[in-house]
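hey can u check if this looks right to u? its 91 residues, i copy pasted from the old doc so theres a chance i mangled smth
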Amino acid sequence: MPLLDPGTTTLTDAQLRQMLAEAAEDGARRALREVGLADDDAAADVRELRSLLDAWRDAKRTAWQSVVKAATTAILIVMLAGLAVYWRDRP
């Protein structure tokens, strides 16, 4: 009984690793091409996208800080108005 069927190809570990590396590289190139990042400007495009994402995150953080600041200020104004009314109406 033969160990391999007729027509079966055997590969060394190095050959298999090389095939897998080439397949992975081809797949990565195809994926980048599908999302439009396969040209010479791709690196600059990715840097610009990351910069825009950082700016978005900063704007979001600043907006939340502004909301918290406005809410805190409103609460303090209401408290001071309440004290003013209390002291004004005091006999």
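The chain has a mean pLDDT of 91.
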